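Just curious. Protein, please.
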Amino acid sequence: MIDLTAPRGDPWANPAAYWPRIDAATCELDPPFGVLHRGALAHNAHDLLRRAQGTPIRVASKSLRVRAVLESVLAIPGFSGVLAYTLPEALWLANAGFDDIVVAYPTADRGAIAALATDERRAAAITLMVDDVSQLDCIDSVLPPAQRETVRVALELDASLHSPVLGHVGVFRSPVRSPAGLASLASAAAGRAGFRVVGIMAYEAQVAGVPNSGPGRIAIRAMQRASMAELAERRAEAVALVRSVVRAHGNDLEFVNGGGTGSIESTRLDDSVTEIAAGSGLFGPGLFDHYEQFAPAPAVGFALSVVRRPAPAVATVLGGGWIASGPSTASRQPIPVWPPGLSTLPREAAGEVQTPLRGAAARGLEVGDRVWLRHAKSGEISEHLNVLHVVEGDQVIDSVPTYRGEGKAFL
């Protein structure tokens, strides 16, 4: 368990001290390796709670993929439950003692469905996401209701903005947009043997996942305000209708999940939401440097070795193409942070086996020197490393395995 009591001071605010100190603490390690700064992680965790103002936060495991971090964050009052990304991951976490796990995406994994539906404890701990009756059919095709435990399900409402000017703004997730449509799905699921409707999810990706700081993003901020105003009304109506349907079948909703790291302030103002999902804000990756309402600490970074000097102003590090999900733009690439002033080359960018870097600092780098980088989004770093080394001050105080380090690759 990592001690996440609130830190004193903010050493990350001074990069000229922060990264060299981390470098000194890890001087005996050979790149590539990753670090997790204990104080920065603690700061981010408590800042998420401050922003949520009492609304519980469900931890999005996809953004971390480190079981020890999940355990440590969930030990802090105010964090409650896991938002998993696959059913096999949820089963693994349940076997490890986690409970209250909501799988954020529908599943068609027949083996995992059977493992869930034939175990009373797992079935009680895990909730599946559905947005179509065909997903219920898929579960029934694995095991009919008479041969399995009752499966807990949550219904997903499309939270995107449909703008007469911009068109569809957001992500293509649930096909169910209207409150009446969600109520109809609730009726089909709640009235079907072998299922229990326990929750609703509506993820406003166009607010939570789109940076909005700076004068060039006035239109984005306007879009986000309009989106939250529209969604608040539609989501509240959907929750009321679904709750009525579920109660008519002798049950009740246990949660209404919304938001993400970038939308906590606006999501918590929606009275229909009972919990907010967040994960990326714990590690504070580069994409989240560009929000008006918060500034996370860079809690995670990774070191790569300089192995080539192809030109006087270019130093090449081994590896580096740890690309985040989403559009393949510069915002999804790792960010060189130390030495300062380094950048990737537009025609090569961050590569799988090598990443050339240019800038004034590149002239002073020699073969064997280190370059420190931050990942762009969040979960991708754990797919490339077996462990994260926990740093405090000038020391490595612990090393915790990633999912990969525990032999797990769920997606």
In short: The chain is about 30% helix and 25% strand.
